[in-house]
Write a structure and sequence with these properties.
By secondary structure, this protein is of the alpha+beta class. Helix content is 23%, strand content 27%. Helix 2 links the parallel strand 4 and strand 5. Helix 1 packs parallel to helix 2.
Length: 124
């Protein structure tokens, strides 16, 4: 197992790594919309937060030596399923084709009371 902790990403909020590589797979921890330079939640609604989450995912995957194009599984956690359309709009901009498998769930609460958290599994 190889640990992935990009220096360009905000520090994890707990005892975990941004990602781990095992075999030919990269398992990314859930990413929330934190601005890497400040560690603060980005301003705005679901579209702004989803954009920041995908930018954070790109940072982690790049540090792991892979990219968004290699994602094979996505799990999306939404504070409110009414935000599905806004999240999906941004999701489709980052993943326009070769869609990975995906699950989307409404959860009671996400760290820092953000609107969205996304975790991915990608090929290394």
């Amino acid at each position: 197992m190889r640990i992935v902790q990009p220096k360009s990403a905000s520090k994890p909020a707990g005892p975990y790594n941004h990602a781990v590589i095992s075999g030919n797979l990269v398992f990314c921890a859930g990413q929330i919309p934190l601005e890497p330079s400040t560690g603060n939640v980005v301003a705005g609604g679901i579209e702004e937060q989803t954009t920041r989450v995908f930018e954070n995912i790109k940072l982690v995957l790049a540090d792991a030596g892979t990219s968004i194009e290699k994602i094979i599984k996505v799990t999306v956690y939404l504070k409110d399923l009414n935000d599905f359309a806004g999240m999906n709009k941004i999701y489709s901009q980052y993943i326009p084709s070769s869609f990975p498998a995906r699950s989307t769930l409404q959860v009671a609460r996400i760290p820092k009371d953000v609107l969205v958290e996304i975790e991915v599994i990608a090929e290394a």
